[in-house]
UniProtKB/TrEMBL annotation:
InterPro entries, A to Z: Glyco_trans_11
Membrane topology of this protein: Single-pass type II membrane protein
UniProt keyword Transmembrane present: yes
Enzyme nomenclature, EC number: 2.4.1.-
GO cellular component: Golgi cisterna membrane
Pathway field: Protein modification; protein glycosylation
Protein name per its UniProtKB record: L-Fucosyltransferase
Family per record: Belongs to the glycosyltransferase 11 family.
One of the record's GO molecular function terms: galactoside 2-alpha-L-fucosyltransferase activity
Membrane-spanning parts: 7-31
Amino acid sequence: MSHAQQHVLASAIVLALIVVFCIHVFLFPMYTSNPPARLIKISTYEQALCRTTLKNIRIPPEWRNPCPKYGIVSAVQGGRLGNQIWEYASVWATARRTGLEPFMPRCILKTLEEYFVNLSIPPLSYIGRCYLDVSQVVNSLGQWNSTEQNIIIPRHAAYWSLILVWLDDVRREFTFKPNLRAYAENVLREVAEEFELPEPTFVSVHVRRTDYVDYLWQKLKVRPAPVNYYITAMDYFIGKYRNVVFVVTSDNIVWCKYNLHSKRHRIKFVSDMDGRGPGKDLAVLSACNHSIIDYGTYGSFGAILAAGETVVYNVTTYFSTLIAEVLPNWRIMS
Ligand SMILES: *[C@@H]1O[C@H](CO)[C@@H](O)[C@H](O)[C@H]1NC(C)=O
Ligand SMILES: *[C@@H]1O[C@H](CO)[C@@H](O)[C@H](O)[C@H]1NC(C)=O
Ligand SMILES: *[C@@H]1O[C@H](CO)[C@@H](O)[C@H](O)[C@H]1NC(C)=O
Ligand SMILES: *[C@@H]1O[C@H](CO)[C@@H](O)[C@H](O)[C@H]1NC(C)=O
């Protein structure tokens, strides 16, 4: 080897070492650097996900579970019953898709357990003594890229496209308490008797008013569904099914009684005057054969549980309308 060749070889080796060094020092960290772990005790974290102050509980011995090996799925409490049902369902579906273990903050479970039995997701308190790394938290499946990461679903979220994949299982997950089922059956039996219908087709009408009217305007610059929408939707059902009776529920039943009268339709208004009893109304919605809803998490979920034909009000790109674009037995009307 000539002197010149030795020189080239030496230079090449030095250059190669420099490249390897640079890759290790500058490039690898871009892929491997983890933010420093910020651990928080899960019992503390659970409280942070809740609006209300949780009572201290004595953890029963059977809850001394092994800490999760990977990330978990949970949600932030937001909204009322309708929202919290979707938050729960979003956690359920996200866990199913990812294989991560789901846990719910106790406050959401408390809301739901008033109405449903045998919910499968355990409370976060179940692993309350374990630690969660808050530097490894993402909000949705879209951001999730490692099993170390926890998916904490934001308040008011409804990951409907994920949920629609397992509709039958979701319906089974939300089993009403026996007293609510009995209440709904009773309401429908009385309605059938009142109109003397031997084989009635029950079509629920859910009318969302009160705070939602403002919300629609503030958020979407959309006016509430006009009376004519509900009447058109009712006409659709009497044109298609026999012995149809409409069962109206609402957070403002007085508005409904005043506005939704029609000589052509059999209509029964069932909600309490004060808009309380959301579980009772939801049980009635889910016991009906078909559904008319306008918008909102509560009505949409009632229609999902009823599993019949559903008419929704056309609010462009709104989630109830998007669901209707996916499900074959849902249709959009204006
Ligand atoms: C809830 O689960 C318990 C125990 O598995 C079972 O006995 C009961 O029938 C279930 N209740 C309902 C309403 O499905
Ligand atoms: C994985 O997700 C985290 C958190 O969203 C993000 O910071 C990171 O860039 C992602 N990594 C890759 C390779 O996509
Ligand atoms: C309609 O709903 C009622 C009450 O839930 C039920 O008893 C009946 O079987 C349903 N009818 C049809 C055709 O599904
Ligand atoms: C819903 O409204 C949008 C915008 O006004 C319109 O383009 C669309 O055709 C409507 N869809 C139905 C099914 O009425």
